[in-house]
Amino acid sequence: MELSLPLLETQFKSWKGCPLSENANPVFGEGDAKAAIMFIGEAPGEQEDKTGRPFVGAAGKFLDELLASINLKREEVYISNVVKYRPPANRDPTDLEKEQCMPWLKLQIALIKPRVIVPLGRHALGHFLKNTTISNAHGKAHKLTDLVTIFPIYHPAAALHNGGLRQALYDDFKALGEFLKSIG
Q1: Is residue 19, in this structure, part of any structural domain at all?
Q2: What residues form DSSP beta bridges with 124?
C-alpha cells in the first residue's frame, strides 16, 4: 500500500507519541495534496483544537486575507503546523514537542513535495533555517535545495498582538506573490 496524505492522517490520529495528545485534539493539516506552496505554523490554537483544522481562528482569518491579497485560496495551498496538538493555554511549544511531531511534518512535506515552504513565525522557521531569526529572514527567499525554497513570514497571530507587524505581513505576502510569479 502506497503512503498517501489520507493514510498518513489516519495513522497520525492513532499516534500517542506526544504527551499533548492526552488533552488536545489532533490537527494534521489540510489543503491541496499536490500544492506547490506549503504554509507551516507552530501549533494549533483553541479554535483549531475544537475543529481539528489548522488556522481557523483569528490568525487563520488573517491568513486567508493575506492569501487573497496575492490571489491564492486556502484550497490551492497546504497548511499545517510543526506541533500537531494545542499546547495548554496556548503556550509556546517546547523543543521536545516540536521534535516529537517533526516526523509527521517531514512525511507531509515528502508526500506533498512543495516547491515553496513558508514557515510562519520563529518556531516553524527554526526547523528550516537554524542560524537566523524571523526578523532577519522574513520576506525573502532562501534556497534550501534546487527544488525547494524557504520563504519565511511572520506568524499572522503576531500582527494580532502587535499591529505594527500588519504591514510587514502584507509586504511579505506581496514579495511572496512576486517570487511565485518569478518561478512560474
Answers
A1: no
A2: none
